[in-house]
Amino acid sequence: MKIHFLGTAAFEGIPSLFCQCATCRQARERGGSNVRSRTSVLIDEVLKIDFPPDTFYHSLRYGLDMDRVQDLLITHSHSDHLYAEDLAIRAEGYAESGNSTLHVYAHDVPLRMTTLALQGLTHNYELHRVRPFEAIQTQTSTIVPLLASHDPLETCLLYSIEKDGKTILYGHDSGWFPDETWTWLKNKKLDLVVLECTVGRSNHRTNHMNVDAVLETKEWLMKHQVLNPEGTMVVTHFSHNAGLLHEDLIEIFEPYGIQVAYDGMTLHI
């Protein structure tokens, strides 16, 4: 599998649009891996996780053919993960796209937002309501939605994705996982785990993970032999409010064998 990290920032992006904090000023000056767009991942060019407002920018920067995407998994409805209005661009009258159907998998709130964005349009989407811990065979893979701990106003999801004999845990947005998710993970085997570290070194870990929560998650996965010995762990979804540049994050996580994602990074597992 090829995993392409299209964006690696939290809601605000880095540097944030109006912000003059030290992190944003340095990101503007240094550029490179310090500049982060809103988070999304593309797997083998055909499975996309989340649909942020930077999707148009991602398609240009990386030369993506978005019409190749067959499955779109939505974790939750927050605007940095679902900019539903842009889905209408694929509808009849806005685009001359192929005849293929784009399948969207999500829980109630993101599906309602997507339905509203497409209301009155002739389109080639198929919307699928997923339920936590119920496996689904999609066009490209086998997915299992898992419960996240993020926004109490909706059912936010993580995803286990199995494709070509490899299994990924896409584990954010979430703080420390709910008990049901930890229970499900026991006795599983993962080749790649993608976590967030939105809040950096702060003590906050309820709806986003901090550094300690990431390290404790890796410890749990290794203790229960869930992450394969040759498996990979990656952190992404960073906020400028954490006050950490790319080099700072590498200094924190590299000693623990955890990779720090940056915009455009690709992995092959």
TrEMBL record:
Organism superkingdom: Bacteria
Cross-referenced SUPFAM superfamilies, in alphabetical order?
Metallo-hydrolase/oxidoreductase
Residue ranges constituting the Metallo-beta-lactamase domain according to the UniProt record = 63-221
Please tell me whether the keyword Hydrolase is annotated for this protein: yes
Does the record bear Coiled coil in its keywords?
no
Q: Which UniProt keywords apply?
A: Hydrolase
What reaction does this enzyme carry out catalytically?
3',5'-cyclic UMP + H2O = UMP + H(+); 3',5'-cyclic CMP + H2O = CMP + H(+)
Any one Gene Ontology MF annotation carried by this entry is: hydrolase activity
Q: Which Pfam families match?
A: Lactamase_B_2
- What is this protein's function per UniProt? Counteracts the endogenous Pycsar antiviral defense system. Phosphodiesterase that enables metal-dependent hydrolysis of host cyclic nucleotide Pycsar defense signals such as cCMP and cUMP.
Q: What is this protein called?
A: MBL fold metallo-hydrolase
Instruction: Specify the taxonomic lineage.
Output: Bacteria, Bacillati, Bacillota, Bacilli, Bacillales
